[in-house]
Amino acid sequence: MKRSCRVSASVTHGLRLSGFKEFGKISVAVVEALEEEPWKVEEELASAYAERGPAALSDFTRRASFLLVDHAAGEIHAARDPVGLGSLFFADTRQGTTIANDIALLIRPGDKLSVCPKGLIQYLTFQYTPAPFTLLSGVQKLHPGEVRTNRIHDGALVGVQRLSPLRFGSNTLSGRELEDVFGEVYGQLRDSVAGRKVGVLASGGVDSTTNALWLKRVGAEPVLLTASFQDPEFDETPYVRDLSAHLGLSLRTHVVTAQPRGDLARLIGFLAEPICDRALIPTGALLSACGHDLSSIVSGEGGDELWGPPRRWPAHVDLAAPFLTASDLASTYLRASAATSIDDRRHMLSSSLAAEIEEEQDRAAKLLESLMVAAEPQDCFQAVKAAQIGTWLPENVIAKDRAAADVIGARPRFPLAHRLCMQFVAGLSNHEHLRGCSGKELLRSFHRGSVPESVWSKPKHKFKVPPGTWLTQPVAEQVCRRIRDGGTGLDRFFSAHFIDSLAAEASRLDDRLVWGIHTLTEWLDAIKARAGSTIHDETDISHTA
């Protein structure tokens, strides 16, 4: 994550703040803003809060992740935006509470890192860690859309509110057409990047093509960026070349070959939390090679989650059926979308930890159920989409491209997950939603005739990364050594049989899981190196409670 914007608030032994701006008796730190400049949100938030108090928080939670301290009321408010672009972690102890956007700031120098076994099970289930879980014992994180309030003098929790990114059936856009919505979304993006170079991550598919087409329509001239591979099975370059020629936009390509271990470790260090998504590798390599002059990176993430169908959904389940029993649907969705089956987790984990798998499976299903219910879906299709947008979108795909953009110090942009896009999709009738999003027909029909025909026939490569770009025997041996060294307790969590198979035949295992475990061990090293480090920020302030 960006080292330049680390913020924290500690209410242990008094109140200590770092990375905040003061506005009278209010201190504010915006961690991430979805569409606007963070400084603008800070000023408007401070002004609105001074006038309306806590009633102003929900409006700004839809725009940004932030921390706000009300010194007069003796309260600190932490809010995470509904898309989850900004992460906020917290640790509650008998001495009080510490909240930060970098999990390393919750670790004191010299502390031994302890992996949370429940968080590890969730990580292996989802391929990321859904809120409130994290991979560190004693540390939790805010849900997307959550506002959490603590007292300053003792850190006690005052209250928690949650905003659902989607609330189906609420037509807040008053019948606006999709063209009008996209015009505003991409017009805002054009204005916010005026005078600066912008790159569009392009695959030649529907989502990235929508970004390129609309930026061109509103008068922007972005650069198209695509990673290619020597193996044509994984290469999307021909589709992007068609798009580049059609729109008259410049194209930068980079052939991703085997990545040095040092480069992989540096890339993983930019992750707020580990994920098993290997797509981080080509995106990070691409931006490192040809993106250093770009101020913003426009990603198509949000296209699948908001405008498309649910991931890996079993064909025998009727998504058009009325939404009646959330618990059954949540369990079915979890089984269908899980990165690993329960049997695989039992094989990988030690016998003591495997005994907790069923309990954690139930806990995960209840989390998904709560996301479904909060969105007020009309059918199963909408319910499953709500679960996907509340977990997979923020914790995996947004996190991936956010980390890749951080490599070059650029700002990630996700126009297809813009709050106006969320409102538009939520306002569709269940019939329009099912028909328009089952195969992305809404986006396809809207752009047909405006882009190359190859866009509609392009096979999906998004999650396919040649294992040879990173998976080597030395990497597998390094992972095994890190598990066995006992420094983080991982040796107690994985079965000896699995560790042996990882050392002997890593190439035969699911490379997504091997990458996920490799990412976990490298990430632990990275946060340990950052733990307790000083935040160099001229706006650092200190108060005594």
Automatic annotation (TrEMBL):
- Pfam families per record: Asn_synthase
Pathway noted in the entry: Amino-acid biosynthesis; L-asparagine biosynthesis; L-asparagine from L-aspartate (L-Gln route): step 1/1
Reaction(s) catalysed by this chain's protein: L-aspartate + L-glutamine + ATP + H2O = L-asparagine + L-glutamate + AMP + diphosphate + H(+)
The record's top EC class is ligase
Pinpoint the site Important for beta-aspartyl-AMP intermediate formation: E301
Could you give a single Gene Ontology term from the biological process aspect? asparagine biosynthetic process
Family as reported in the entry's similarity comment: Belongs to the asparagine synthetase family.
The name of this protein is asparagine synthase (glutamine-hydrolyzing)
